[in-house]
């Protein structure tokens, strides 16, 4: 019997909105050499995928979970406590992960190789949480954007200002 060997170093599954945890579980169990994984907009995946990556992909260095709105702090806990989290994870993209909170940043303090975290539109992450992780990991670059909850009053006459960086003309 011939055994099929699956060998991936980089997997881009971005925008595969129909793939579920079951598919990624199978992939993680068979791709132990995986170094980079892009799961952006894989909207059906949950923390179960992160648990499988934590267990089976010890060489993971970069992971994009942007727009994976079912990912929670618990999934990041599993990732940060794994071999890849402690030793290898350098880039983690969590843009638009609405269930991510400052607790995720506390978990990521275990990731000593972390170089960059993307947190755009993670509405439950605060400036204080970012300040704490940067105190523990001073070299990490945190990219975040904090939109105001409600638009500020008009500034400068007829120009309405919606955020610090945008002006509607």
From TrEMBL:
It holds the Pfam family DUF7885. It comes from the Eukaryota. Residues 16-119 form the F-box/LRR-repeat protein 15-like leucin rich repeat domain. One of its GO terms (biological process) is SCF-dependent proteasomal ubiquitin-dependent protein catabolic process. InterPro entries: FBXL15_LRR (IPR057207), Leu-rich_rpt_Cys-con_subtyp (IPR006553), LRR_dom_sf (IPR032675). One of its GO terms (cellular component) is SCF ubiquitin ligase complex. This is F-box/LRR-repeat protein 15-like leucin rich repeat domain-containing protein. It comes from Pelodiscus sinensis (Chinese softshell turtle).
